[in-house]
Every structure is written in C-alpha cells, then in structure tokens.
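#data-curation
PF: Archiving a pair of folding outputs for the training set. Convention for this channel: one message per protein, sequence first, structure tokens after, nothing in between. First:
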Amino acid sequence: MLDRSYLHRGILGMSRYPGGGVEGWFPIHYAAAVLAAHRLSEDPAYAPAVAAMQAQVDLMMATHAHLFQGAPAGRLDPDAIGRIARCIEERIHRHSHSGHSVIFAAHAMRALTAAPECGRVEVVEGICQVIGYFNRNQGVGLDPAAVGAFPDFSPQGVADLVSAELRRIPDVVPISIGHIGLGHVMTHGHALIELSRLGHVHLAEKGYGAFCAHLGGARAA
C-alpha cells in the first residue's frame, strides 16, 4: 500500500490551481491520479501492482513537481469537507466538462476524510477555486431534462450502467473522443459512488441526472 505521504501530496496538488481555463485546471488530473493510485493501493487485490503504480506516480510527481512541492503551513479548516461539498452542490445537477468538478471533488473529499490533517484553509480554498471554475463555466453541458429514462440512483445502479457501457464496446463512442469519451463516463460514475460511500448521498442523488446526461451523450455521439 502507498504510504500517507501520497495522500498529503495528492491533496496539495489538487489545490494548486493557478486560475484560467483548461491550461489551469488540466494539470489537476495529475494530483487526482496520485489520490486514485493511493485509493487502489488500499485494496489487497492490487497488491501485486503497487510497486509498479508507485514507480509511475513517483515519475509523474517528479515531472510535475510544481504541483507537489512544499507544504501548507496555515491553520486547519474545521469544515474542510463541508466547504467542498457546498461548492460542488451549486452546479452538480448540470452536466459539463465531463463531470470534472464532481470527479475532482470526490477525490479530494475522500482523501481529506482519510487525512484530515491536510485540510488547511489555503488547500481547501485552492480546491474550491478549481471547482468554482466549472461552476462559472458550463462549457458544453447537456441538460439532464433532455435525457430519457434511467433507473433511480443507487451506487450499484451507477456501477451497472457503467459496466453495461463497457460491454457495448466498440459500439459506444471511442474512449479517446472529446468531452464525452467513455473514460470520463467511468470516472464520473465512480465519483458519485464515492460521494455516496462518504455519506453525501444527497449530493450523489442531485448529480445523478447530470451523469445520465453524460452517459446519454456518449451513447448519442
């Protein structure tokens, strides 16, 4: 299993948003990848792959060192997770940017649940700033109201929908195509499942229509 330093550096990287559009928020993917690797390493089923994951993550952090260097020295935010939750709640019901705000927020909230000592005010503020970008810029959003019938929200139901899309390959849109690629259908669905596991079921339910719009868009592409 990867040690807690990967949680610390991943959370720090999530907060290093310099502002701007895609050139500013795209590098946050690297921090999310660190947190995702730590998450996978907790599962004993992935034990044989941990050394390889660690080598890849270490190389990535060295390549994008500006995201992961240093340590915030400010005070702890006693409501760190709550602030992030309220930030994504503003627009979680609308799909845009392939669900990136939900994906990034779920990674950050899970990591801060595991490592609350990382919830410094400046870190939380940085994470909320990148989510705020998506809140302000709806991009190519799809309207959940225009989506056909999907089953009611449940974590297992979301997993089943994503699994069904994987089984439809190559009939679905290729994973490499634009903002509705299948890769982010998976990560968007996972984010809702993670929010539910963390106890934020109301957020997952509120964001479910947007996920269905994302999935419907991928099917229609």
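PF: Second:
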Amino acid sequence: MGLMAIIAHETHHTVRGFDCGYGGPFRALSLANYFQEAAGNHAFALGVGMGAMKAAGRTWMLSKLDIGIDQLPQAGQEVLVRTWPAGTSKLFALRYLELKALDGSLLAGALYEYLVVDIEARRPLRPEKILDPGLKGDYPPPRADLNPGLQGDQGFSPEALQAFEPTLSLAASPRHLDYNGHVNNGHIIDWLVDAVPPKGRGCGELARLKVDFIAELRSGDQVLASIRQADASLPEWRILLSREGEPVAKAYAAWRPASWRP
C-alpha cells in the first residue's frame, strides 16, 4: 500500500447545544468524542477497526494525546473533523486529527498515540510488525508544536506532587465503559478538565490539553482528581487522576486568559 493510497477521513458535524453545555463553551468531552468517532470510523474503513483487531486477539488503547486549540466552535456551527494515520514510533501508532470550520480555518489540531495490545497477554505489541507500513497519510501535521507525553514534565515530579490539592472524587459506572470494558478516554478527559474549578479557567476557553493515560479504570472504581497551578497568574494546571493512591491519568491543561477575545 503506497503512502498516497491513504486519504484523510472526513466527518461533518453540526455543533449541538449539548456539545456546549447549553450556553457554555464547546466541551472537552465533545471534542474528544468528535475525534474518537472519526478515528474509529477511519480505522474501520482501513481494515484495522476494533472488530478486526479483536478477531486477531488485539485491541487499540489510546496512550497519549496532545490537542492544541485555536478557537472553539459555537452551537449551531458547521464543522469538519479530518484525520489520518501518521505511521509508527517505537511502541506507538500515530494519528493526526483536526477540527476545522467550513471556511477551512483550523479550530483544533491533535496528535494521538495508540498502543496495539495483545488482549490475552495484556501487553503492547510492536505496531510496525502488525500494521501495514502503507497506513500513513501524506499530509502536513495540523500544528507543528504537537508533542504528546508528560514523562519529563517537572510539574509531576515527586516534590511537585506533594502540593497537589484534591478537587473531585467520583465512581466509574457502566455508562462510562467502552468497547474494551474499561472507562472510555473521553470520560477521563472530561473528569480531568472538570477537576479545575471555573475560577481557574481564565475566560473559560480551553487552549491546550495534553493527557497521558496510565492505567485502565473499570466500573466501580473510585477515582480522585488532584490539581496544581504552578503560577497563580496563569490559567495553566497539572492534573492527576488516581485510584487508591495509584496514578490513572495525568494532564496539562491551559485555558486562555480572562482578557482574551476571539
């Protein structure tokens, strides 16, 4: 399969009131769902969807993401989600995603990094040994600064974690589960963002979100979200989601300042 054989997958949406919390800004959960649906549909069209993977004893698991947001859409706006696979790197299969207005302007761009996991052994496989090397779209990244991964972020050092403050606790329930039987990444993103109180979100419009998914959550698991703001003058936060003291996910989230205007 040649590089040019992979055509970017496009999905059109009309932003609904429930995507924006009926009056609020476009929700992080809505953006995660738009991107997740497009990625899943494209994987299916390419023959590597969840059904095909499960039949081979494998599954996809989202490991890391980086989303840069230029402007969030409004209720009633027509938007386009565009996505394509971007090859592999070490243990990860890469995928670019973008949210665009119908005039072609970029609203948000993202890079997702997935693991290909052996279901029975519960261990990741080398994606280049599983996936056709031709599964790569020949398109420029939606943003040049996309770089998933928070491993080197000193905001999560053992010393920094001592200053995190708990803000949100909840229980995972059956409605949060996905195809793999664990809590869907969209809900985890939603919880991470919700952990930051409204007064800490600047003008209320999310500008950047980086997430590392560390462990699976199942129905009945109790989780706690804790946050830390490195600089009180900036609406930027490190967020940790944990279960019984063990990390489940961590995130860096930045909102536009209160003075920002589109």
